[in-house]
Amino acid sequence: MSTPIRKIFSDTIIYTAGSVFNRLLPFLLLPIYTYYFKPADYGVFSLVYSFWFFAAVFYLYGMETSFQKFFIEAKSIDEKKSIFSSTLILIFFTSVLFSLIIYILADNIALTITGDKPNGYLIRLLAIILVIDALYRFPMILINSEQRSKLYSSLNAIAVVINVASNVILIVFLKYGIEAIFYSYLVSYSFLFIASFIFSAKYFAFKMDIAQAKFLLKTAHLFLYYGLFLISMDLIDRFILEYFQGTAEVGIYSACYRIGIVMNLVITGFKVAWTPFFLNLKEEEGNKEIFSKIFTYFCYGGLIVFLTFSLFADDLVKINVAGYTLLNQNYWGGLFIIPYILMAYLFSGLYLNLTVASFLQNKIKYLIISSGFGCISNIAFNLILIPGLGMLGAAISTMLSYMLMFLILYALSQKIFRISYQWNLILKALVLTCILYAINIYLQNFASLNYIAKFIIEIFSVILLYLVLLGNKTAELLKTYVKSQP
Question: What is the model's pTM?
Answer without folding.
Answer: 0.74
